[in-house]
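re: ur question from yesterday

yeah so i grabbed the chain u mentioned. its 209 aa long if i counted rite. heres the sequnce exactly as i have it in my notes:
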Amino acid sequence: MDEMSGLSALVRYGSHAIDGINLHFWIQRLIGRATCRLQEGAFLSHSARIRNALGDSNNIVIGRHSHIRGELMIFAHGGRISIGEWCYVGVGTRIWSAGSIEIGNRVLISHGVNIFDNLTHPLKASERHEQAKQIFTSGHPRDISLDEKPVKICDDAWIGAGAMILRGVTVGEGGIVAAGAIVTSDVPSYSIVAGNPAVRVRELSPDER
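ran it thru and got these structure tokens back, copy pasting raw so excuse formatting
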């Protein structure tokens, strides 16, 4: 190995080491809070946040060689996030589960994406106020229903920057969600959707799959 290639390798190693020091994660582990289950080669950037109000680390699973730079959260009354192998979750992305969010293998989720399998708050104003009071004073309530509906993002999907995927949606294998799209219904496999609400723009040709 020549001097320049050796220096380049050292710089890459140093950058990865600095980016991979997630103090938030390690502090939670040290004080005994639930976080997540990291499989071999899974990576939490310094910007990643794991918020596990349910208290069971097995309910957030990050698969082999996946890189997380956003926020994964499960509520105190329920929730499960499963991320497959070789996935990417960008900076500023929030994945919030009170039911089930399943992400397949080789899924790319860009920055600033929001994925919810629930309403996050009750529809009735008095119930919203009561929920907010509990969160402010004692943490997320354990006896609440947020009309959860599972979300599934299948293998090889790509979610563009700033998109929003709402409860009950399945993004089919190889599906592409355009930047800024608001997805309220299923995305067919190997199709591109865009807009608010998102609609199918076109199907990918065989040589694009």
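noticed a couple things. Helices lie at 3-19, 23-30, 125-137. also The longest helix spans residues 3-19.
anyway ttyl
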